[in-house]
Amino acid sequence: MPGPGSGSSSAQPHHAGADQLPVTVVICAYTMKRWDETQAAVASVLAQQPVPAQVLVVIDHNPALAALARRELSVTVLENAGMPGLSGARNTGLQAASEPITAFLDDDAEARAGWLASLIEPYRQPGVVATGGGVVPRWTAVRPSWLPPEFDWVVGCSYLGLPQQPGVVRNPIGANMSFRTQVALEAGGFNSDIGRVEGLPRGCEETELAIRVTEQTGTTVMYVPAAAVDHNVRPDRERVSYFLRRCWHEGQSKAAVVRLVGASSGLERERRQAAVIIPKALWRDLRSLFAGHVAGGKRIAASIAGLGASAAGYAAGRLRSGRRAEGSRQPRREAVKAR
Q1: Most CB within 10 Å of its CB: which of 236, 312, 326, 330?
Q2: CA nearest neighbour of 52 among 113, 99, 118
């Protein structure tokens, strides 16, 4: 791999050696504010045993950050060659990947020992096209007592409702996932019309890609809790205001996914979460409240508010999609009339 300061503008294809895993690891970064975390993320990847054959850091339209990364990081540094946003950055990494498997780690996450080997273990099965690992929140102090564990997805982490043992899921969590490189490329990669751009708390680009890939190829996505990373949760994400904003935008993101893949696949997991997992949580927290624990009441309020904000965001997103579709059809109808 390149030494410090030698990050290149393009990745050189190569093949994994006997002491390397046949994996390209992609870390996407966009802001100087996370520089220390980005360095820690890269270090955690380079500490994996065996090491990945290729590590790419993709900078999302931030020349100053790209220059710093090239000077300081001992891996290949690329700049997002696509649309601004996480989808474009991930696609840049996917296109530059030299290995048959491409893993993605968030720039504010650190991989635990054994992460990468565990993450790619399911690929021994030919029907597995993608994998995801456990994402453990690393709070600034202590976990907010009002936050139900069923909503840990709000801070980009594994949540109560996912399998406790390795199992098939609809999609991985974006902070810690991998895809078969060529299959993901042939499917078109991540959709740049959805997903996170700078600080806007949207997502679901990995959800849409996973659904698209599995439906096209008849393959599966495996969730491996033991392939764990620690995900730093910044103080601003521990606030109720962020919780509600994130739920709203998640609803909007799900509306975009449903527009692309349909409600059956796009809302499969969300329906189970809303119909089964969260009612159990409400009952659990109600018992806690009756036992004299005020935090139980706070979690009940958060669950109801989170569901409401997500539903409202979804409804607004579906309405907007309908208006856009109507607007796109109108000129064609007028053209037909004019002829």
Answers
A1: 312
A2: 99
SS3 state of residue 209:
helix
> Where are the chain's structural domains?
20-338
* Digit-coded pLDDT (tens) for 72-128: 999 999 999 999 999 999 999 999 999 999 999 999 999 999 999 999 999 998 899
Three-state DSSP at 237 gives: helix
Q: In 159-277, which residue ranges form alpha helices assigned H by DSSP?
A: 181-186, 205-217, 240-261, 263-266, 268-272
3-state secondary structure at position 84: coil
Note the pTM of the prediction, 2 decimals: 0.87
- Please give the pLDDT value at position 192: 83
- What CATH class has 20-338? alpha beta
In this structure, what DSSP letter does residue 287 have?
H
Cite the DSSP H helix spans in the chain. Answer: 35-46, 63-72, 86-96, 115-120, 181-186, 205-217, 240-261, 263-266, 268-272, 278-290, 294-338
Residue 223, H or E segment: strand 220-232
Q: List CB contacts of 267: < 8 A, sequence separation 6 or more.
A: 254, 258
Question: What is the spatial distance between Cα 194 and Cα 87, in angstroms, rounded to a whole number?
Answer: 8
Cα–Cα distance measured from residue 185 to residue 41, given in angstroms and rounded to the nearest whole number: 25
Give the sign of the dihedral formed by CA 40, CA 197, CA 52, CA 103.
positive
* DSSP at 88: H
Tokens found for residue 182: 């060529």
Q: Which residues fall within 8 angstroms of residue 164, CB to CB, at 6 or more apart?
A: 225
